Structures are given as structure tokens and as C-alpha cells.
Target: TLDc domain-containing protein
Amino acid sequence: MGRVEDILQVIKDDEKIEGKTLKLVIMTLYKVFLLENSNIQEEIKTIKEILKRHNEEIISLKNTAKNNQEEFAKINDNIKKVINYIKNISSSKQDYISPEKENKNQPIKEITNTSSFPITPRSQNKKSEFKPLQTTKIDEQKKENISQILKEKQLKEDNTIEPFIGTKEQYNIIGKFTQTITEWVGLPKCKVIYDSLSERSINKEETGKSFGEHVMNKPNICFFNFDENENVFGVFTSKEITEFDSEEHDDSMFCFLLKTKRIISVPKKWNIKKSINCAISIKRDSSVLYSFGQTTGNGFVEIAKTWLKQSWAHNISSSFLAMNENALVGSNDSTFTVQRIIVLEFY
Model:
């Protein structure tokens, strides 16, 4: 059978169609109709499949949205439960202690237990609670007597005060160098005899008198200083310091550096030069608590009360062997601040 175009070329416009020609035309048109109808059916089928997929996607999205809504409702309920739980705890706890205060008052042994450093802390300081006096008038003499009694009681408790931890990493730094320190000192055990944080918590500030009462007349004591520049340094003496402002020579004395942010290997130890007279001197009435180095005053370090920018090192290398001028604190003849002082007694 010919194409429609071929038939149209044969048939003239005014020619009558009949017989075989008419039959051929009808058959051709029928075939064309079937072909066109077949294409339409395929397109309809394709459209139906697309609509089906879209419908499935819509159903899936609806299910997801429903699940998300249910999950959000569960989360919202959980949040409400947590809020109610916190409210109940807050209302039921009468003596709440903040995490910061708890951290400051934990015993030192909780830190030192994480290392092998045998620090023996002093026992827990338990301040007595005094009820208000049931009197309306107290004369000046009675006030002075009461004040003196309280001071004497506090002084008796001084030797049983356990240092506050403060920044616990500071004790951990000492613990980190356990083996090195004990090898330098030659004694395996030690205990804390002074902590500036503990002192400030009781007396509000450090004093030379109180500092001396804690560290004097004790052998084998080691001073650790933590300064504002992240230096941890100190000095050791095996001799007892028996008097304030004493400058008795001690050939066993050495100074050291445990930690610094400067580019220098640590820990380091420096012994005194043989020809130099060196000592540790406890100051009674001064902003300086103690000094160490030459008794002639040519090469020394002064450690002032904590948080005062009055500590300084002066030509310290002239007192110790193989020491660079700035090795100990990173400067020479420049003031710096010591943030904490810890003193250990070895035995």
C-alpha cells in the first residue's frame, strides 16, 4: 500500500474517487489512524507511569512529614521533662555549691593520686562555726579579747590546713616531674607546708611572718613558683632556715626550671658556683616573701607576695653554673608577677 502523499499526487482535485482507488484511500487512512492512535496510546501510557511515580513520591513525602512530626512531638515532650526535672532539683537543693567553688575546695590528694608523686597533704581545714553572742553591748576590751581568742584558735589550726587546689594543673605539673625532683633532692617523700592560695583564703593576704612560721626551722624544703609567663621554677635547700633575713651560706642549694612556654628544654637544674656564697633569705616585713642567690646582692631572685608585680631576677647567672642570664624566668632586671607559691618539705 502506498503512502498518503503518493495517493494525493495521483488523484486530481476534481476527479471522482470510486472503486479500487476509493478502497485504497480508505485502507490508507485506516492504517494512518491506527498508527496515530498507537502513538497516542504509548504517550498516554508514559504519562500514566509518570503520574504514578509522582503520586508515590507524594505519598512518601507525606509519610516522612508525618514521621518527622511525631519525632518532633517526642523531642518536645523530652525537653519539657528535662526542664521540669531541673526545676525540681533546683527547688529541692537547699545548700547548692557551684562547680567553681567545688573545684577550689577539693583536697590535693585527689590530684596527686593520679600520679606517683608522694605529696602528703595537710588535713582538711574545718572552720568552727561561732554563734552570735547573746549580748546587746560589748565593751572594747571584750571585743579585743574575743578577737585575740579567734586569732589564736585560727593560728593553732594553721598547721592542719589543707591547701586549696585552685588550678589543679599546677599540682599536676609538680607530680609530672616526680622522679626528676626526688632524684635531685635525694629523698622519696614530701608534704605540703605552704600554699599561697590557702594563706590568702585565711588571712586575705600573705605576710612574711606567716610565711616564715610555715617554712622556717625545717630541713629539705623546696620552693615552687608559678608566674604570669607560665614559668614554673624554684629553689631547694637542705639546711634549716632559722632566722628572718638570714644569709647563711648553703652549698647544697640549687635552683631549677620545670616548665616554660619558651623554646628551652626542661626540666633544668643549676647548682651554685663553688666560689659564690648563696643562701635563701626569708623576709619579715617586706612585700618580698623570700629571695635566693648571692648574699652580696649581685646575683639573686626576689619573690614578692603573689599577684604583686614586684618579683624580679637580677644577674642570676652569676650565682649558678652554666646558666643563661634569662634562663630561669625569661628576663633580667624586669619585674614579673608570681601567681602562686607552693613549698614542700622532703623526708
